[in-house]
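One example copied in:
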Amino acid sequence: MILSLILMSSAASAQSPSSVVDKVLGALKGSKALSASYTVSSPQGSTKGTLVMSGKKFRVLASDVKCWYNGTTMWSYSPATDEVNITTPTAADLQMTNPYSAAQNFKSGYIISKGGTGNGTYTVRFTPKKKSNVKHMLVTVSTVNWLITKAEIVQTDGTKSTVTIGNYNKNASASASTFEFDKSQVPAGTEVVDLR
């Protein structure tokens, strides 16, 4: 067991940060449908949610936001506005909401460097190439399945948010309706505003 841990640690150390990001993108793209649960902790509090992805399509369900994207149309619900907005998102919009698009943006919009290795993990540091509110991000990846387990986002003012991801299922059951607006997930009578 000790030998296998040493070998796994050595294999992770031999990876370049860029090749680790490529393996993460490959793991995301390679699954027919992937589901996971996540927790976001920040100075404003903590939120838990679930995510389902299939290609460009995704669904996010959490207490502070609910979002469905079927590859063309996006439905977004916010309890703050108590309405569902329907949009046709641009590529820039998707980089902010779609985990796969955001991960692809890491390759072009950030300087990628090694952040460290641990037992079965590899940490990649992302530093924005352009001026940003984000000072850097530390993303921890499992070297077993090449999926992200944790991300720490440090703002230029020193505040830090942590996203922990787990309960991955790379063979999740997801039909086309999974990525379409489900009115049972929002309060009855919620206004739906078509912004297309």
In short: The chain has one domain: 22-194.
